[in-house]
Amino acid sequence: MPKLKTRKAAAKRFTATGSGKKIFRRKAYKNHMLYHKSSEQKRRRLSHIALVHESDEKEVRLMLPYL
User: Rounded to a whole number, what is the largest CA-CA distance in the chain?
Assistant: First the structure.
């Protein structure tokens, strides 16, 4: 059976937790145009990592077969 290919765009965006059971991602809206966003918003809501929702986890795992 041939090797499976990893979707490189997904590999740059998603990482497994230490146990490998969950997948986490970075939150959106913290790349550019940060000057008009409040520091509270940037610190509280955007700085933390988030877990991928259970309903989307299957699709992410298909894109990353060796995760």
Answer: 52
Sign of the dihedral defined by the CA atoms of residues 35, 40, 44, 45, in that order: negative
For residue range 38-54, list pLDDT tens digits in order: 999 999 999 989 999 99
Cα 38 to Cα 17: distance, rounded to the nearest angstrom: 30
Through-space distance between the first and last CA atoms of the chain, rounded to whole angstroms: 19
* Whether 65 contacts 10, CB under 8 Å: no
Whole-angstrom Cα distance, residue 67 to residue 63?
9
This prediction has a pTM of: 0.79
What's the rounded Cα separation, in Å, for the pair 62 and 5? 10
